[in-house]
Amino acid sequence: MLEWDIRKLHILRTLRERGTVTATAEALRMTPSAVSQQLTNLTKQLGVPLLEAQGRRVRLTDAARLVLRHAESVFEQLERADAELTAYLHGEVGEVRVGAFSTAVPALVVPAVRALRDTHPGVTVRVREAEAGEAYELLAGGEVDLALSLAAQAPQVGDGRFTRVELLADPLDVALPPGHVLAGVEELRLADLAGEPWIFGGSGPWSDITRGACEAAGFGPRQAHSAAGWTAILAMVEAGMGVALVPRTAAVARGGVVMRELGPDRPVRHIVAAVRKGAEEGAAVGHVLGALREVAAEAVGG
């Protein structure tokens, strides 16, 4: 019977995700030599080569990938056991660490926390603001229990490490300067703005969303100015320097600009939550997910 060491399997799994021994050591707060030693010991325990040199890097062998394929179900079961044990020991008491991107914090997380104070006062939520991609690194590393992200930046649905929950299709409205010729149009379509100067970030998810929405409407947006913060973007819109797409749930001051809903083909951004596979069965995590679902269901209509 082979010896299966969960700690060493976790190191191997992290190496697969991070790509190098140095990055793995940083993620696990170990030294590179300690990582190498643990993986050497695991190789001896299992009796198969797990790593092979590839220049200055190492790559996982087919045997290592086979081991990890089976280990994923073990990690999932451990998450379930941890969730069930926590529920047994604490019942309605527990702490949930949430990693969320900036606009999701005021729009979804804060209202959920307020609701939980009334329905489940024993559940404590600790919030950590993080970029969408970073939130999943924190989730995979065990530093948060639940991650909120844009679907475009979330792991693929088939990623065996996580359970994804679709929360919200957030409509994108258009911000126009005061007195803009299209401000009073009865039914405004995104295609009507094809000739306008646009304001959005030079890179990142919001740039991708803006470009993708405009291209779906049949045109490429002409970027007049680049900005990432809503205060800067809306100030430029108010000054007549261009137009911009704004998610409806973004908690931003919109005075001085004309906000218009787009027609039936309006673009949306999809917001998702994710937990490590199996952890959704934990009572505290389940309560937080439930509160987020309720807030998301009311967010757009509210």
Structure characterization notes:
- With 302 residues, this protein is of the alpha/beta class.
- The protein contains 9 helices and 11 strands.
- Helix 7 (205-216) links the parallel strand 7 and strand 8.
- Helix 5 (104-119) crosses helix 9.
- The protein is globular, with a radius of gyration of 23 Å.
- The N and C termini lie far apart (59 Å).
- The mean pLDDT is 87.
Order of helices and strands: HHHEEHEHEHEEEHEHEEEH
Q: What percent of the residues sit in helical stretches (DSSP H or I)?
A: 40-55%
Dominant shape: globular
Q: How far do the termini sit from each other?
A: 59 Å
Keywords:
single chain; 302 residues; alpha/beta; seven-stranded mixed beta sheet; two-stranded antiparallel ribbon; globular
Please specify the SSE layout and strand pairing:
Blueprint lengths: L5 H13 L2 H8 L3 H15 L4 E4 L2 E4 L1 H29 L3 E7 L3 H16 L3 E7 L2 H9 L5 E5 L11 E15 L20 E3 L5 H12 L5 E4 L4 H9 L5 E4 L10 E3 L7 E9 L6 H17 L3
Helix pairs in contact: 1-2, 1-3, 1-4, 2-3, 5-9
